[in-house]
Amino acid sequence: MRYKEYLKDQLPAIVTHILSMLFCVVFLSAIDMQASILLILLVFWILIAASYIHIRFFLRKRYFAELLLQLERLDKKYLISEVMEHPILTEDKIYYHLLKAANKSMMEQVSESKRERKEYKEYIEQWIHDVKTPISAMKLICENNKSDTTRKLMAEMEKVSHYTDQALYYARSENVEKDYLIKEVLLSEMIHATVAENKQMLLQNHVSVEVKNCDYTVYTDEKWIGFILNQLIANTVKYSEKEPQIIFEADSKQGQILLMLRDNGIGILESDLPRIFEKGFTGENGRIGKSSTGIGLFLCKRLCEKLGIGIAVKSKPGQGTTVELYFPKGDFVKVQE
To answer: Residues of CATH 3.30.565.10 domain(s) within the chain?
Structure first.
């Protein structure tokens, strides 16, 4: 609150005081009151009025400053009416009750939206679980009747399974902490399991896979990391060129286990790199004949943050892409070393 703005608000009261003083001067002069007494009366009137306006300004300024400080300390700003003190002035009480009523209405609306969102999320999760059954059945049928056609179908079904997993993990990504199990996992085992899940897609696209020095143990959730690796492999295949290749390599450095996934694909433009983890961002590559949604890397980034894993991408156009995952070392791992 600025003093100049406050004076503008008090302008009606100031004008009223001035008019009242003029009226008193005229009236008292008409009854022959001494000029000295009249002057003393005006001086006292001005001092009292000015003091009142000035003191009230500082009291109101302090009141609103405390409210703003309370607001800044709140994570959920809309709860300000719940923590602020009950006002004393009648005008402030009216605003207080209006704020309370608005906050109550908003909370009811938020609760309704959360309930609808929860129901929709539960439906999506249930639908994904249900649709996985026929997908698994179709895979089994194709496995038992191998031919060029069924192999192509298997590759497409892997894509369908990948997209259903993406929808499921997107629905659960906000509450990862409720659905993870941290345990000791061997990197090489996770990598081989993920490659096996994408076997048909890799074979259909003639992608060679090489695993180097990945016999490191990390502490993480195997299921969520498997999903992240699935996303990275799918991106590699999608943006591959002739004789595509994926190399997995791990290293131990600075209290971390570094897992690198390198490919020899088309690479990423330097201007796109800062935004590749943004939701819905497809970049230049995604606009050139690719069915990109901009969700895969966004999910990878979100899940890595939830699991305490660092993720970084290095790339140059025409020179491939390297994705780095940084797993923190636990004290138990340090003791073993």
So the answer is: 182-336
pTM for this prediction: 0.61
Residue 217: strand pairing partners: 186
pLDDT digits (tens, 9 = 90+) for 202-244: 888 888 999 988 888 888 888 888 889 988 988 888 888 788 8
Q: Say how far apart CA 240 and CA 324 lie, in whole Å.
A: 18
- Confirm if 213 and 251 have CB atoms less than 8 A apart: yes
* Secondary structure string (H, E, C) spanning the chain: CCHHHHHHHCHHHHHHHHHHHHHHHHHHHHCCCCHHHHHHHHHHHHHHHHHHHHHHHHHHHHHHHHHHHHHHHCCCHHHHHHHCCCCCCHHHHHHHHHHHHHHHHHHHHHHHHHHHHHHHHHHHHHHHHHHHHHHHHHHHHHHHCCCHHHHHHHHHHHHHHHHHHHHHHHHHHHHHHHCCCCEEEEHHHHHHHHHHHCHHHHHHCCCEEEEECCCCEEEECHHHHHHHHHHHHHHHHHCCCCCCEEEEEEEEECCEEEEEEEECCCCCCCCCHHHCCCCCCCHHHHHCCCCCCCCHHHHHHHHHHHHCCEEEEEECCCCCEEEEEEEECCHHHHHHC
Average model confidence (pLDDT) across the chain = 83
- Name the token pair of 330: 């636990």
Chain mean position to CA 219: 25
Distance CA 333, CA 329 (A): 6
Model confidence pLDDT, tens digit, residues 92-109 = 888 888 888 888 888 888
Q: Which residue has the higher pLDDT, 83 or 51?
A: 51
Decide the pairing of beta strands 245-253 and 208-212. Answer: parallel
pLDDT digits (tens, 9 = 90+) for 288-324: 655 667 788 888 888 888 888 999 999 888 888 999 9
Q: Is 182-336 in CATH node 3.40.50.300? A: no
| Alpha-carbon span 282 to 257, nearest angstrom | 29
d(Cα 44, Cα 30) in Å, to the nearest integer? 21
